[in-house]
Every structure is written in structure tokens, then in C-alpha cells.
Amino acid sequence: MSTAFANEVSSETYDTDIAQDVAASADRSNKFKPIILPFYDPSIKAGITAIPLFAFYPDDNDLISDASTIAVPLIYTSNDSYIAKVSGDIILFEDNFRLSFETGFTSTNQPLSGIDSNKETIDFDADFMFKVLDDFYLGVGAIYTSTKYTADNAEEQSALEAFGFTSDYQDDIGYRVSCSGTHVSISITLTAALFGILSTKTMLNGLVTIAIKPIRRFLPTLDIFIALTAIQTALLPPNLLAVT
């Protein structure tokens, strides 16, 4: 600011004018955007996904934070597999705190060890992140997963259980520490099923990090990428996303 300008306008008035200009120029209204997309996956056949996206601002006085988002991925395929989930990315206190979560139910029909089987999973995944540097966050998270496997008849069920896949829900609980920035997102997760083994899920976290920001900005050209990312995140087995 020049000296002449500073003499004419107080810093308080200047800051107020900037805030008003930002508020006037930015569209900070709540938004809704649905995505409907057909797809094909050899393991679960042809399907369709519907992802309603909601964008909103928890604090009207916060002019810095991007929109918080809620997404509801709903997927159904021709082999009667389906997924119903709710995920969110909540941004608070001028983007100093972020809460991300995903929870839902998955039922997939596909061969397992040569046996036609159904896998049912109930899961919950959440992270709480706080800013430590400009656009760099640290956080902690928790994971809960409960899974069971069933076959079409008693004989196949016995064979399935012989491979270690039980028809009773098996719970797994884990904890995670994460760091996230503009170009990198890495988390280290320790679960009961992998006790003593650290799993770095860089592939999944990279996809999610890339997808979240376009969702917040509602860029139409990235709708297909966002939808495919949601499908891949929901369908790929965890062991394919982990490098131990």
C-alpha cells in the first residue's frame, strides 16, 4: 500500500473493503450436483453409479475455507453387487481443521478361491487433520471394518471356510497417522489384523486427495474422473491398495 493511500484510508477500513469484495465476488452458496455414470468391471460386471454431491459452508463468517462436501456413492451392478456409502470432507475455522470420514455397506458377488461367494463389509473410516504449515496438515484417524463371506450352499460354504473365509462377521480396528500437502498425501495405518505391520496406503490416498479438491470446486470437466475414483476406492480390496 502506498503512503498516500494509507493516509486516506485506515487499515481497518481497507481490510473491511477487502472482505466485502471477497464475499461479493465468491459464490459461497450451498450447492448440489449429482453424478450418474455407467461402468464395467470384469469382476462385478456392468453397473451404474449415482453420486449425489452436496457442498456447503458451515460458517458464513469464514471467507477462507473451501466448501465442505458430503457425497453419497450408490453403486449397483448386473451381478447383484451393490455399495451404499456416505463420505464427507468438513473444513472448519479458516481451513485450520479438517474432518474427513467415510462409512457404509458393501455387498459384492465374485469368485473367491474358485467358489462363487458374497462378501459383505461394514466399514467406518475417519481422519481429523490440523494445519501445521501453509497447506500442510497432520492428523490422526481410526478405521473399523467388519466382514463376512457366504457361499450359495453348505458344501461350498465349508470349502470357503477351509480357505479361511468365515460366514461370521470378523471385526478389524485400526489407527492411523497422516500427513497431507499440495503434492503428497501419506498415511501409516496399524490394524489388529496387521498387528506389528505398517501399511502405507499411498495409492488410495493419492486418488482421494486428487479427487476431493475438484469435488469442492465442482469442476464439470472432472466429473468422470471423480466418479471413477469413487468406484475404484469403493471396490478395490484393501490388500491391493497397500504396500507392506
Features:
244 residues; globular; alpha+beta
The whole-angstrom Rg is: 22 Å
Give me the secondary-structure category. alpha+beta
- Order of secondary-structure elements: HHEEEEEEEEHEEEHH
- Based on CA inertia axes, which overall geometry fits? globular
Number of helices: 5
Specify the biggest β-sheet: 11 strands, antiparallel
Detail the poorly predicted runs: 1-25, 195-244
Number of strands: 11
Distance between the termini: 54 Å
Mean pLDDT over the full residue set = 75
Percent helix among the residues?
A: 10-25%
Descriptive report:
By secondary structure, this protein is an alpha+beta fold. It has five helices and eleven strands; from the N terminus they run H-H-E-E-E-E-E-E-E-E-H-E-E-E-H-H. Strands 1, 2, 3, 4, 5, 6, 7, 8, 9, 10 and 11 form an eleven-stranded antiparallel beta sheet that branches. Helix 4 packs antiparallel against helix 5 (223-235). It is globular. The model is unreliable at 1-25 and 195-244 (pLDDT under 50).
Question: What's the short version?
Answer:
The chain is an alpha+beta fold.
